[in-house]
Amino acid sequence: MEKEIEKIKENIKNFHPKNLDDLETLKIFFLGKKKGIITNFMKNLKKIPLKERKFFGKIINELKKEIENKIKIFSSKHQYFNKNKKKEILFDPTLPGKAIEIGSIHPISIIKNRIIEIFIKIGFTYVDGPEIEDDWHNFTALNMPIDHPSRDMQDTFFIYKNPDILLRTHTSSVQIRYMKKHKPPFRVLSIGKVYRNETVSSHSNFMFHQAEVFYIDKKVSFSDLKQSIIYMINSLFGKKAKIRFRPSYFPFTEPSAEVDIYNVKNGEWLEIIGCGMIDPNVLNNVDIDSEIYSGFAFGIGIERLALMIYNIKDIRIYFNNDVRFLEQFKSEF
Fold first, then answer.
1. How many whole angstroms separate alpha carbon 73 and alpha carbon 81?
2. For a tag on the chain, would you pick the N or C end, based on fewer CB atoms within 10 A?
3. Distance CA 142, CA 133 (A)
4. Which residues pair with 273 in a beta bridge?
5. 245 and 259 in contact (C-beta within 8 Å)?
6. Helix (H, G, I), strand (E, B), or coil: what is residue 100?
7. What secondary structure letter does DSSP report for 184?
């Protein structure tokens, strides 16, 4: 039996099946249930003396495992070969390839990135904040107590009441959150979505993007505010852009102003910025000493800027996902 086993081992070493049919032949020859060599060995074990039976049984089991392992390896190789061979047959190299469409940056994102770049150059830090806010951060801390008439200026989307949780109406809430956690001086820029039930440019809208810029330090003046706004407008529109400041009212700034830019294409002034010196009450609400520090803040709508820069007629087109519209901005990469 030892000589037969050695002969089988040699046959297994030299056997290299060319296809799955050869592999099946090997499997039946060695492991077949009726005439397989290993099967016959197992049947003849009972004829061997008891002392030798354990020894030969172990050798036969090892041989069986070796054959099974070799069959498994050959089977995997042939299956992989046949699978990839089929793919090669199905593939026609003469067919034209599928065109890959190049994406584009949305105009809102383009203007957002430009504003970030503009203010980072002069030492501002970009931060973000939650779109779902509580009443204190969105209204009360910004000098708008519960019964203040200025709350009527914004038609707010409340998620639920008591406590009041709402979709933020401005990015000024980020200003409050930042000032609570940091000590001045600091220069901060935040950009994000804000939500109001209002009409913008004669088209119904409930959400737009707003940039909030604020600066807190000792001896900050309205002149600093004005120069920062002029710097931003010149960077976006060029030094020939015409702007004007008009007195206005915001509960969180005093004095306050609106900034208009002259649209050469239609000969009209368009309001784009609300600004002012941060009200001392706002500073005190976040534990900043208003006797020592002062600051300015201004907010600007990204959609309105993009309307003018790209001469867009309808504000609703930003959200239509029209590929023909978006493809125009590929050159901005």
1. 12
2. C
3. 13
4. 259, 300
5. yes
6. coil
7. S
Q: List pLDDT tens digits, range 58-100.
A: 777 777 787 778 777 777 766 554 555 544 445 667 778 777 7
Sequence-separated (6 or more) residues with CB below 8 Å from residue 219: 294
Contact 273, 299 (CB under 8 A): yes
pLDDT surpassing 90 at residue 112: yes
Q: What is the distance between the alpha carbons of residues 84 and 161, in angstroms, rounded to a whole number? A: 62
What is the enclosing helix (H) or strand (E) of 98?
none
Give the contacts of 212 (CB within 8 A, at least 6 positions apart).
170, 171, 172, 174, 175, 188, 189, 190, 191, 297, 298, 299
Side-chain-side CA neighbours of residue 60 (13 Å): 20
Please list the residues that pair with 191 across neighbouring strands: 211
Of residues 53, 33, 188, 202, the one with CA closest to residue 120: 188
What pLDDT, in 10s, does the model give residues 155-203? 788 888 878 898 999 999 999 999 999 999 999 999 999 998 765 444 4
Amino acid in position 214: F
* Measured distance CA(16)–CA(71) in Å, rounded: 10
What do you get for the CA distance between the two ends of the chain, in Å? 78
Q: Give strand pairing partners of 245.
A: 259
Q: What are all long-range contacts of 168-171, with beta carbons under 8 Å and residues at least 24 apart? A: 168/129, 168/130, 168/131, 168/132, 168/133, 168/138, 168/194, 168/195, 169/138, 169/194, 169/195, 169/196, 170/138, 170/194, 170/210, 170/212, 170/299, 171/129, 171/210, 171/211, 171/212, 171/299
> Which residue matches tokens 């800027």?
305
Between 291 and 325, name the one with better pLDDT.
291
Q: Is 277 helix (H, G, I), strand (E, B) or coil?
A: strand
Contact 183, 141 (CB under 8 A): no
Q: One-letter amino acid identity for 220?
A: V
